Amino acid sequence: MLTTFPRLLLQHAAERSSAPAMREKEYGIWQTHSWAALAQLVERMACGLHQAGLGRGEHLIVIGANRPRLYAAMLAAQSLGAIPVPLYQDAAAAECVFPINNAEVRFCLVEDQEQVDKMLEIREQCPQLARIWYDDPRGLRNYTDPGLASLDELVATGQAFTAQHPEFFRAEVEQARPEDVAAMFFTSGTTGTPKGVVHTHASLIDRAQAGAAFDKLSASEDVLAYLPPAWIGQNIFSYAQWLVCGYVVNCPESAATVSIDMKEIGPTYYFAPPRVFEGLLTSVMIRMEDAGALKRRMFHYFMELARRVGPARMDGQTVGALNGLLYALGDLLVYGPLRNNLGMSRVRVAYTAGEAIGPDLFSFYRAIGINLKQLYGSTETAVFVCLQPDNQVRADTVGVPCQGVEIKVADNGEILVKSPGLLKGYYKNPQATAEVLTPDGWYHTSDAGFIDTNGHLKIIDRVKDVGRLADGAMFAPKYVENKLKFFPHIKEAVAFGDGRDKVCVMLNIDFEAVGNWAERRNLPYAGYTDLAQKPEVYELVRDCVEKVNADLAQDAMLAGCQIARFLVLHKELDADDGELTRTNKVRRGFIAEKYQPLVEALYGGKTEQYIETAVKFEDGRSGRVSATLKIADARTFEPMKAAA
To answer: How far is CA 529 from the centre of its chain?
Structure first.
């Protein structure tokens, strides 16, 4: 039965008051918050916000990492019928102006001094922003700006109000209905201005329940909340499903301690975008390169075995007595210690989403005994559209439609979805809403794909990105990019080829992985730009590119996507420079325009090209970096002929 998030909170507090709801690591020690304590905190915060003037239907901006008191702030706002709007904590101050003004926000609740400084910086552009509360007081003692106060002060005000009006909070909670707006999430703005995606309690809770039922989630799960709360993926896993299931959400001390905290917690239910899985694999490969010869040989032997039999074993298939025995030995010597080192010893279900994952990367985790699966969804669908059932997991599909979902494929190959989890609309943008929602309730995903003979959905690419080479061969840039990013030395890739005679790519090396590789070979370098242009690094990258080409040649449909030329960029692609979204998706069109001289050089047959680029540094300063980039050719292979 559908309900609201504050009612779910009160239900847990009544039925299992002393059970842990959240844990937060502070000064190296895990602090536990029970359901009863959390409910009390939410009540006091809600009453404090009411005293400040937050009204039903108003928006409350929440900015920060995963923190129990920020989660409580979202629940407090929803208890009053207000609408929390989480924003990315790493967004520049200027990026917050549009959401705040678009949603006419008067009140903002932030994590720390960094976020307070952002809000104060943009106050002139957001004159209606009257009150700012902060959770962490460090560094803020001498701030005297009007309307700025600590979260402790807000809670104290609410506590005094609660003492005088003990029935107020529950009366407010009872007024809410499942069809009321519960939250608004701004899209990453891959192709333009971000849009506010409006979701109700009903849409979010329905999808959370569908996902929980699919994977038999219970209150005994442990989840690590380490991704931005502004991303709906993190919000569903550590907020919506948390309140539906009643499991424990664990908040790391900081981004720098996530890997350590993960090993300490040992989550049972884990979610990460492909980039995180790529990073974990890269760190494993770097450590193995530094290991002794015997360890390296043992690792590679058992990993080859795992690639052959691991995925089949995970899917419940028989692998033979000898392979089974060898795999058990590998589990003792390699796979088990590796899972433990990754913090995944207790993982029962792991998901990846947000963008397509390279098949080799996906198979690696399943090969070592981690039940990694793919799901398909978006901000507009409240995440859960398709999920992969256990024992039916494949690298090239994203699963079957989950409970309540209908899917159909339009004539142009676009996937259309009908689901109880669809957005109510885009905030103040009826034109954009009408473009994605049909009158009879179908949502245009903008993704191209098809349903295979087993009922699984296969995504090829974004509809607008799937193109054709000059000879008519299919060009799927994201597919090519993902295959490149499996290699630990390649961090990012941008492929071009639509309407052209060949495919060319721009690459980012992984500075840590390639730096480690260079140091072992006594190859000196002075920073990223210098390392990226070393001839030895180009040969290393060329080897990766040609392995991808050999693999593409085996695929009759995508053999034409083989990479003819490539270059390594002089800087890392960065969201602060507009090249990536805040969810780290490549803004291919923007990059093509920004680096047009490089694109022309790739297709013009040049062997090098000078480029100068404006950048933003971490401390907020602007500057320019320049370099003469080498352009290299890569070997391509004859496509494999289809069997007669």
So the answer is: 27
CB count within 10 Å of CB 363 equals 21
* Domains contained in the chain, CATH given: 5-272 (3.40.50.12780), 274-348 (no CATH), 467-633 (3.30.300.30)
Angstrom distance (rounded) from CA 461 to CA 475:
10
How many other C-beta atoms are found inside a 10 Å radius of the C-beta of residue 416?
Answer: 16
pLDDT digits (tens, 9 = 90+) for 415-452: 999 999 999 999 999 999 999 999 999 999 999 888 88
Residue-wise pLDDT tens digits, 201-213:
999 999 999 999 9
The predicted structure's pLDDT at residue 288: 82
Residues across the chain: 644
Token pair 């309900």: residue: 3
Are residues 6 and 174 in contact, defined by beta-carbon separation less than 8 angstroms? no
Taking alpha carbons only, the member of 384, 402, 194, 111 closest to residue 271 is 384
Low-confidence stretches of the chain (pLDDT beneath 50): 642-644
List the one residue out of 494, 496, 500 whose CA is nearest residue 482: 494
Q: For residues 242 and 249, give the distance between their C-alpha atoms in angstroms, rounded to a whole number.
A: 7
Token pair for residue 242? 């948390």
Half-sphere exposure of 459 (CA within 13 A, CB side): 30
Name the helix (H) or strand (E) containing 34: strand 29-34
End-to-end CA distance of the chain: 55
Closest by CA position to 134, among listed 150, 115, 117: 150
Beta strands of 78-218 (E only): which ranges?
83-87, 107-110, 131-134, 148-150, 181-186, 196-200
